[in-house]
Amino acid sequence: MTTDARSAGARALSRLLGSADFARALTLAILATLVGSHLIEAVSGTVTLRTIIVGLCVLSAGVLVVRREEISLLRLVPTTLLMVLAWAFASVFWSTDPASSFWRWVAMAGVAFLAVTIGHVRDTLQTVRALGDVLRVALTLSLVLEILSGIIFDRGIRFLGIQGNIASLGPVQGIFGTRNMLGFIAVIALITFAVEMRARSVRPGLSVYSLSLATGLGLLSASPTVLILAVAVGSATAALWLVRSVPPQRRPTVQWTLAGVVAAASITLYLLRTRIIDLLGATDDLAMRNQLWSLTRFYVGRRPVQGWGWFGAWDVDEQPFAALNQLLGEHHTTALNAYVDALLQLGWAGLLLICALGAVALVRSWVDASQRRSVVYAWTPLTLVALAVTSVFESFTLYGVGWMLLVLCAVRAGQSRGWRERLGTAAPTGTIPTLPAG
C-alpha cells in the first residue's frame, strides 16, 4: 500500500470516528452493552461481554483522540472520580487477591472511561434519547420473553433467570436476572421517558407506550424497593418543580428550606424504618439483610480505613466474601447495600470518596436544573437521587450500568458547574452547547 493510500485511509478513519453519526452509534452500543450485560453474559459468556467492552473502550479512545482539539484535558474527568479510581487502585496492593482485584479495577475503570466518553461526545438531550431507545428495546424484550415463558410455554427460561411468573402477576425478572434489577431499570426508564415526553423529543404515542411499559414491568417486578424509589424520585421531581417555579432571588431560601426538610424526613424515615418495612411486607428480607450486615461490620472492624480491596461484585473464592457466605450458608454476590459494600472493600476513606462523587454531582446538577429553562437538565439530578436511594437496598451503583450512570451524571454535572469553569479554560467538549440559564 502506498503512502498516499495510507494517508487517505487514515483521513477517512478520522472522519468516521469524528462524525456525529458514529458518536451516536457508539453511545447506543455502550448503553446497550451495559444495560443488557446479563443477557449477553447468559447467552454468550463472560469472555464475550468483556471482549465487547474492550472493543468499545478502543473505539472510545479513538473518538477522543480524533476530537482532542475539541476537548479540554482539564475538564475531561471529574476530580472526585479520579480520587475514587486512585483509591480503588491503591486497594489492590492490600487486597486478599491482588491479581483478581486488579482486573476488577480495570473493569471499573473501563466502564468509567466509556461513561466519560459519552459525556464528552453527546449532550444531555442526545444522551437521554439514546438511553431511552435502549431501555425501550430492553424492556420490550423483557416483556416478550416473560409472556413467552409464563403464558405461551408456561415454563421458565433458566439460563436467563426468568421464572415465568407473569401469569400470576409476578415477580418477573426480564432480561436483567433479578426482580430488583428490573425494578431499578424500570425507575430509571420512567425518569428517562418522562424527560423525553416533556422535552417533546419523541412522538406522544411512543411516550405513552414507554411510560406504560416501564410502569407495568416495575409493578410486575414486585420489588419492594420500587415503591420507595418511586416515592423518592416523585418527591425530588416535585421539589425541583417548586424551585424552578419561584423567582430567582428566592431560590436560595427555598433550596435551604428543602434541604432541611430532606434531612428531617431522612431522620424520621430511619426512626420508623421497622414499621415501614412491615407495611411493605419485607420483614423476612430485612432480617436476612441485617444478619449479612452484622457479619460485614465485623470484617469492616478489622480493616476500617482501607478495606479489604476492590472487587466490585463478590467472588466466593476470595476473602472475606467466601467467609461471609459460608457463615450465612447462602450465596450473596453483594452486601445488598452499596454503602456497606464500599465500606467493606474500600474502607471509610473509599466510602467517603464515593459519597463525595455522588453528592458533588447531585448538588451541581440540582442547581443547574433549577436555573435552566429546558426540562432535560432534570434528568441528571433525578437519576442521581434514584441511584442514592437504590444504594440503600442494592449495590448496583458500584458496577455495571449503575456505575456507568453515576460516572455519566458526574461528568455531566461537572461540565456546567465544575470549578474549572471559573478558571477561564473552558473548551468545547464535542457536545451541543447547553441552553442559557433561565
Identify the notable features of this structure and list them briefly.
mainly alpha; 438 residues; 17 helices
Provide a descriptive summary of the structure in words.
The chain is mainly α and 438 residues long. It has one domain (18-423). It has helices at 3-17, 20-35, 37-44, 46-66, 79-91, 98-121, 124-152, 179-199, 204-220, 224-245, 251-271, 273-280, 283-302, 321-328, 338-371, 379-390, 400-417. Helix 3 (37-44) crosses helix 4 (46-66) and helix 15 packs parallel to helix 17 (400-417). It is globular and about 70 Å long. It starts with a helix and ends in a 21-residue tail after the last helix.
Helix and strand arrangement:
Blueprint: H1 3-17, H2 20-35, H3 37-44, H4 46-66, H5 79-91, H6 98-121, H7 124-152, H8 179-199, H9 204-220, H10 224-245, H11 251-271, H12 273-280, H13 283-302, H14 321-328, H15 338-371, H16 379-390, H17 400-417
Helix pairs in contact: 2-4, 2-6, 2-7, 3-4, 4-6, 5-6, 5-15, 6-17, 7-8, 7-9, 8-9, 8-10, 8-16, 10-11, 10-15, 10-16, 13-15, 15-16, 15-17, 16-17
